Every structure is written in structure tokens, then in C-alpha cells.
TrEMBL record:
Record organism: Taishania pollutisoli
InterPro entries: Erg6_SMT_methyltransf, Methyltransf_11, SAM-dependent_MTases_sf
GO biological process: methylation
Name the record gives this protein: Class I SAM-dependent methyltransferase
GO function term, MF aspect, one: S-adenosylmethionine-dependent methyltransferase activity
Amino acid sequence: MEEQDLKALSEQLMKPSGERGIEVANMMNENNIGMTVNSIENLELKGNERILEIGHGNAGHLDYLLKKAEKLQYEGIDISELMIQEAVRINKAPIANKQAVFTLYDGTTIPFEQESFDAVFTVNTIYFWSDPAAFMNEIARVLKKGGRFALTFAEASFMEQLPFTKFNFTLYNLEAVQQLVDQAGLTIEKTDLQKEHIRSKTGEMVEREFVTVVIKK
Ligand SMILES: C[S@@+](CC[C@H](N)C(=O)[O-])C[C@H]1O[C@@H](n2cnc3c(N)ncnc32)[C@H](O)[C@@H]1O
């Protein structure tokens, strides 16, 4: 891939838009489903809980999440208008049943009151947080006391091998995440390191290492 194609791919991963954005979102949902499932499993959801997902992409995984327990309430927020449209198109039934709502927001201020959620999760978005410490504080604010936050991402040592991450991505290791968690007054409860085989965004099969950090308020 040429530099300009890598840059365009990176922009789509950060904020999908246009016709290409729909394709990129389908590919993300397929390629990242192992990470998303791991994030959801680590939340250990219980009946009647209210859950926030940050940066859901096309939310092709919502049916899976809603089967984890009875009467779950899901809220999804994303910075991409296209991803909100796609998530709404793909998830008509849970929206009609009032189990799911998708909301466009500015990527900075989470549009909910304090202590709104039992569980929060996000997969492959930390690379794009513009002010990571302030954003971790926002997550802490909307979590109920005793609430859980599953933060799923691939560490810098893996991500820096991917040619498109030199554009737009900020890469993290576990030490940097520990600092973000500490300054927000939260606690890391578990670090779940995983390996899987996937086809990379540029076509080759790669072994991907990723981690879900389970954080508690
Ligand atoms: C790389 S995609 C990941 C999508 C999905 N979570 C996955 O892992 O397949 C990043 C998604 O997060 C959204 N996004 C980027 N920055 C965000 C932010 N600060 N807050 C919420 N969503 C964000 C993008 O619009 C996109 O839908």
C-alpha cells in the first residue's frame, strides 16, 4: 500500500465516513470480533444492567451482547455519524424493543449523568482519545460505584508493526494505561492478555496480541 492509502485507511479507522466507511466498518466488525467478545465476556454482565459502549463501529455484535443476560439496557456512543447510521440500520429490533440507543457525540464529553452505568466497554478506541486523562475521568464519572470498565486494545509493541498506525494513532502500553487509571481514582482488577490469528487490514495473516484491562470504580 502507498503512503496516501495507509493514511486514508487510518482516517477511516479513526472515524469511518462515506461509501468506503461502510466497507471499513464491516471489515472492522469481522476482524475485531474476538476482541469485542473478550471485552463483553470480561464485563460478566448480569440481568437489568445498563451498559455503555464507546466507539461501537457498526455494532454488529449487539445481538451477542444482549443475549448475555436478561433485560440489559445498552447505550452506544460514537463520533462518526456514519457509524451511528449503520448501527441503527443493523440493530432495528433491539432499538424498537427499547433495549438499545445510539448517540452521536463529540468524543470528549460523555452525554450522560454521573453514575449512569453498571458497565462500560470500549474496543480499539483508546488510540484516538484526544485527552486520555480527561477521558478516563469522564468514564469514571458515568460509572456507578462498584461499576466495571473493560478497556480492550492492542499494545504499542504489536500496533507499531502495522504500517497505518504511524498516522492518527497514539499507542499505549500497560504502564501508560495504569497511570491513566490511577489518576482517575479507578483500580485495575484484572489484565487479560490474549493472542489470536486474524487477517490484517492490509491482507496478510498475522498473530495479534491484545489485552482487556478490567477496571473498577
Ligand atoms: C477502530 S474503530 C473500532 C470499532 C469497534 N469498536 C471495533 O473494535 O471493531 C474506532 C471506532 O471508534 C470511533 N471513535 C474514534 N474516536 C472515538 C472517541 N473518542 N469516542 C468514541 N468513539 C470514537 C470511530 O468512529 C469508530 O467507530
